[in-house]
Write a structure and sequence with these properties.
- The protein is of the alpha+beta class.
- 17% of the residues lie in helices and 45% in strands.
- The protein contains 1 helix and 8 strands.
- The chain has an 8-stranded mixed sheet with strand order 1-3-6-5-4-7-8-2.
- The model has no long low-confidence stretch (mean pLDDT 89).
């Protein structure tokens, strides 16, 4: 396959349609994510970019590089691009996090970005919190029985 680009009349347009990172509530952080990219232009493009997960304090918890394998997206087509995600810092047991995805094509003619938020809850912390609530309910029940 030989990809040729002629000068004049080219349209550069790449969009990030979706990603498979958890939305809403997440109980774990995935090791990678798939990004659904669409090339709406009439020339082939190679998207690059960064993927970051930040907590509400602005600390980068996870980050990754988009399309380190240099996959090409042909004109008028869609492709899933994988981004490997690496841990950069520890996460609190319960936190509100923001996903920031941004990038551009290899010749810097067009860019894309996407943001989103989700609630992270560590399953162990959830079990401990449930156990503590149960202990408090039992204690209140015993206290009420003693007063009667």
């Amino acid at each position: 396959l030989i990809l040729v680009r002629k000068v004049g009349g080219e349209r550069f347009n790449i969009n990030l349609l979706d990603n498979n990172w958890p939305k809403g509530i997440a109980f774990s952080y995935p090791q990678n994510t798939l990004l659904k990219m669409q090339n709406e232009g009439n020339v082939h493009l190679i998207p690059y970019g960064t993927f970051e997960v930040k907590d509400i304090f602005g600390r980068v918890l996870y980050s990754g590089i988009i399309n380190s394998s240099s996959h090409i997206i042909l004109p008028e087509s869609r492709r899933y691009i994988q981004a490997d995600v690496r841990s950069r810092s520890f996460s609190y047991p319960i936190s509100i996090n923001e996903i920031v995805i941004k990038g551009e094509d290899s010749i810097k003619k067009t860019s894309y970005s996407q943001r989103g938020t989700f609630l992270y809850v560590n399953p162990t912390a959830l079990v401990v919190l449930g156990f503590l609530v149960l202990l408090v309910v039992i204690r209140i029940g015993k206290y009420k029985k003693r007063k009667q």
